[in-house]
Amino acid sequence: MNEQGYKKIFGRPESLTETPFHYCPGCGHSVLHRLVAEVLDETGMAGRTICVPPVGCSVVAYHYLKLDMVEAPHGRALAVATGVKRVHPDKLVFTYQGDGDLAAIGTAETIHAANRGENLSTIFVNNAIYGMTGGQMAPTTLLGQEATTAQGGRDAKLHGRPLDISNMLALSDGVVYVERVALNSVKGVRRAKKAIARSFRAQMDGLGFSLVEILSPCPTNWKMTPAQSWHWIDEHLARVYPPGVIKDDTGYED
Amino acid sequence: MRGTQVVGETAVRAGCRYYFGYPITPQTELPEYLSARLPEVGGSFIQGESEVASASMVIGAAASGGRVMTSSSSPGISLKAEAISFMAGMEVPAVIANFMRGGPGLGNIAPSQADYFQSTRGGGHGDYRLLVLAPAGGQELADLTFAAFELADRYRNPVLLAADGLLGQMMEPVVLPDFVDLDELPEKSWAVSGCDGREPRSVYSYIADPVLLHRHNLHLQEKYELMAQNEVRWEEFRTDDAEIVVVAYGTASRIAKGAVNQLRASGRKVGLFRPVSLWPYPKAALRSLASRVRQVAVFEFSSGQMVEDVMLSVGERAEVYFHGVAGGIIPTPADVADYLDSVMNGDGRVGRRMDI
Fold first, then answer.
1. β-pairing verdict for A244-248 and B44-47
2. Are B200 and A48 within 8 A, CB to CB?
3. Helix (H) or strand (E) holding B245
4. Strand (E) positions, chain A?
5. B32: which residues sit within 8 A by CB, 6+ positions away?
6. Which label site among A128, B92, B152, B287 has the fewest CB atoms less than 10 Å from its CB?
C-alpha cells in the first residue's frame, strides 16, 4: 500500500532496464525479454545468471536485461555458453537464439551441446523468418510462406522443408526437457513463462540440457498487422510446429 | 619431451585450465595430453564438434575469466579465424597454437610456414592484430607458451604461437616453468560471473553506432601500438662482422643456423637474424642490421611471405634475396649454405633477388 491507498500490482521487473525496446510493434522479443526478467526476479537468480544473446534482432539484449552477458558469433551461442559454463558451473547460463542462429548456421553447435548434455538452457525464438536481415527464408519457414529469398513462397523441391529441430533434439539422451509454446495469447504467454522457469530449474538442479521453443510473431517481416500475426500463428505456424511438451524427463510434479 | 606435450604441460603450469579443440594432424598429441592432464588440476577439456565450435568455446571461457587455449594446424586455424576476430574485437585473452602444415587447402601434414600471412595479417575479418610468437625449439616452446598466457591477459588480446609440424613432433630436453598460483593473478574486472552485488557486465564486439565503433577501433589501435613498442623479440647470431645475414624463423632458423656455422668454418662472414615475434615484426633491429651488411637472404618454408616484412624493414639498405620451399620439404643446412653461397657469388643458381 502506498500513501494514496493504492496497491501496486504491476510494474517493470527489476531485471529489466528502463531502456525502451527497439523492437517493431507486435514483435515477440519485448514480451519474451519481460518473461525472462520476471522468472529471474521471482527466483532471485538474476545476480547468478549469465546470458548468451544471439546475432539477430536481440543482439543488443544487454541493453534491456540487467544480466552479465557474452556475445557469440552467429550460430555459436551454445558453444560460447559451453565455455562459460565450464568456468562457472554453479551459475545459470542460458542462450537466447533465433531460428537462423540455432537451426541453420548453428545447427552443429546446437545438436552437440544438447547431445553432450551440457547443463544449459536455451530459449529458441522461432518466427519462421530472418528478422534482422529483413525477411529472408529461415530453416523453419513454412512451405508456401513468402520470404525475400523464397519469392512466391517456400517450395519443398527448391528450398527443402521446414526443420523441426526441437523434436530432433528431444531424441538425444542428453536432453532433459523440451517444450514448445506460442506467444500469441495470454494463455500462451503464461505457458511460456512456466516453461522458461522449468528449464532454468532443471539447470540449477543439474539435470542437463533443456530448450523452450517460442513461436513468436514477426509482423514486420510477415507483412501483417500485429493482430493478424497472432492469427497466423494459430492458423499456420502452430499447425506445423504444434505447441506442447515434447519431452520432459525432469520428474517435476508441476 | 615432445614439442606438443611441452606446450600442453607449460600451459597447465601457466594456469591454463580450459582447452577446447578438434583433432588434426600434426598436433593431435597436444589435445590428447591435455584431455588427461586438465582434469588432474580441476580443469576442463572438450573435444568440440568442430574447430568453429571449439574456438567459440574459447570465447566463452575467456570472457568468463579463465585462462584458456586451443590449438590446431593450418586448415583448422582457418576455421578458427571467425572466433579469433571476435576475441580481438571483444578483447578477451586466449592462446592459440598453430602447428603449421603444408597448404593451401588440405595440403599435407608435413611442416610448413605458409600461414605467415594468415598469422600476421589477420586471417579473420576486421582491423585487428594478434601477438604472434614463433618458437624455434623445445625450450622456446615452453618459454613462449608461458609468456603467451601472461601477454594475452596483459593486453586482453589473443596470442598466436606460430609453430610448425616439425616443432610439435621433435623431442628435446626442456626446463619447464614453475606453476602459476591462480589466486595471485590480477582480478579480471571485466569478466562475467553473474552480476550479484555489482553492475552487469557485457563482453561484446557489436557496436552499431559508427562513431562508437570508430572509437573502439582507435582504442584497439592504441593497444596494438603499445604491443609494437614493448613486445618485439628477435635473436641475432654471429652478426657482428657479418657481410650477409640469413633471415629465418622457427624450424627454418635452426637449419639456417647450421648453414651459418658451416660457412663460418670456411671463413665466410655470415650471420643469422631470427625474428621471434612475427607480429610485431622486429623491423627496427633488422633495419639497423641491414645498414651494416651487403646482403639479406630470406629463407622460409613457404613460397615467400615473411620476405615482404623483410623488404619493408630493409628498404634500400641492402640487397634482399629469397629462397623458399613449400609443400613440406625440409632442406638441410648444406642446402641453405648452398643458397647463401650462391647469393654471395651472385651467380643466381639458388633463390632470387627481391628488391629489383
1. unpaired
2. no
3. strand B244-247
4. 49-52, 68-70, 92-98, 121-126, 175-182, 209-215, 244-248
5. none
6. B287
- Cα separations (Å) of B215 from A216, B9, B207, B218? 36, 39, 10, 5
Probe site for chain A from B38, B64, B212 (most A CB atoms < 10 A): B64
Give residues with Cβ within 8 angstroms of A239, minimum separation 6.
Answer: none
What is the residue whose three cell numbers read 531485471? A15
B59 touches chain A (CB under 8 A): yes
Please state the length of chain A. Answer: 254
Residue B278 has phi, psi (to 5 degrees) of -85, -30
Beta-carbon-side half-sphere exposure of residue A182 (alpha carbons within 13 Å):
19
Sequence-distant (6+) residues with CB within 8 A of B259 are: B246, B270, B333, B334, B335, B336, B337, B339, B340
Torsions phi, psi for B275 (to 5 deg): -65, 135
Confidence of residue A4 (pLDDT cuts 50, 70, 90): confident
- Contact, B246 vs B286, CB < 8 A? no
User: Which residue is associated with the grid cell 574447430?
Assistant: B51
Residue A102: DSSP 8-state: I
From B20, B49, B208, residue closest to A83, measured CB to CB: B20
**A60, B66: Cβ pair inside 8 Å?**
no
pLDDT grade for A21, boundaries at 50, 70 and 90: very high
Percent of chain B, pLDDT > 70? 100
Listed as ranges, residues in chain B with pLDDT below 50 are none
What radius of gyration do chain B's Cα atoms show?
A: 21
Which of A52, A87, A92 lies at the smallest CB-CB distance from B66? A87
Q: For the whole model, what pTM was predicted?
A: 0.97
The DSSP-derived string for A130-193 is: -TTTTS---TTPPBT--BTTBTT-B-HHHH-----HHHHHHTSTTEEEEEEEESSSHHHHHHHH
- In angstroms, how far is the first alpha carbon of chain B from the final one? 45
Q: Could you identify the residue written with the cell 637474424?
A: B273
B209 at interface of A, judged by CB pairs closer than 8 A: no
Contacts of A245 (CB under 8 A, 6+ apart): A178, A179
For residue B130 the three cell numbers come to: 594478434
pLDDT digits (tens, 9 = 90+) for B255-271: 999 999 999 999 999 99
Q: Is B131 helix (H, G, I), strand (E, B) or coil?
A: strand
Pairing outcome for strands A209-215 and A121-126 = parallel
The grid coordinates listed for A12 are: 517493470
Q: Calculate mean pLDDT across residues A190-203.
A: 98
pLDDT > 70? residue A186: yes
B68-72 and B244-247 beta bridge pairing = unpaired
- Tell me how far apart the alpha carbons of residues B131 and B117 are, in angstroms, rounded to a whole number: 13
In degrees and rounded to multiples of 5, residue A187 shows phi and psi of: -60, -45
